[in-house]
Structure formats: structure tokens, C-alpha cells
């Protein structure tokens, strides 16, 4: 499935179930899209969501973008991979799959000419700063990115 392919209905429904479960565990009403939108918007620095968008999340009609999922997960104190995909970070298969993808990405980066490595590093760093996000790849914290940058300079 490409990044542009919308999630299948079953995937959206499963996300909605996990969102409702997380809301209930955190003692928030799972039947109030307005409250969900209000609480989310208090924590999100981007464009606010509407009650209609929150309703679509709760009904399994849509899944929020990854940056929004990270905010929801932090707010409700659940792992973002669990909220989005139903897996925990302790899931060995999911961890191995993520590690494999991360290793392949690093190999691709290392195969680039030094000049292009610098461009990629600068682009990723600026995008991370603009979105206010930290890397969630296993073993790739902000310190790792800074180490890569120092090595490239």
C-alpha cells in the first residue's frame, strides 16, 4: 500500500476501537467528538481539527495523520504504534520489521554521494524542526541525527 492509498475500512474501524479504548482508559468520554476535538486542539500546535473530523475518527471513517496520532498517543499515554496499527513496541515482529526498514534506509543514505547525504540530512532536520516532531525510528533519536550531521560536515 502506498502512502497515498487511503486505509481500508477494517483498518479505520480498528483504529477507532483503539482510540475509544484509549479515551476510556484515560477517563475521557468516547462518545463526544466535540470534547475530543477540544482536548486535542489544546495540545496540537497545527491547524485545529473540527468536531466533524473527530467524529470521523471515532466512527472509523478516517484516521488522523501521523503527527496527530503522536499527539493523541502522548495525551492519552498510549504507544503511538499501538494506537495507529495495534502493535506495541514490544512486539518482536513489528520491531524487526521497523529495524529492517531503518537499516535499508541507512544503507540507501550511505550509498549516496557525500554531497547528497548532506542535502538529505539538512532536509530531514529542517522538516523535523518545522513539524516539531522527533524521529520515532528504532534507535534513531535526535542525538543520532545530530551525530550523522556532524559526521557529514
Automatic annotation (TrEMBL):
<feature type="region of interest" description="Disordered">
    <location>
        <begin position="134"/>
        <end position="153"/>
    </location>
</feature>
<protein>
    <recommendedName>
        <fullName>Transcriptional regulator</fullName>
    </recommendedName>
</protein>
<dbReference type="InterPro" id="IPR010982">
    <property type="entry name" value="Lambda_DNA-bd_dom_sf"/>
</dbReference>
<feature type="compositionally biased region" description="Basic and acidic residues">
    <location>
        <begin position="141"/>
        <end position="153"/>
    </location>
</feature>
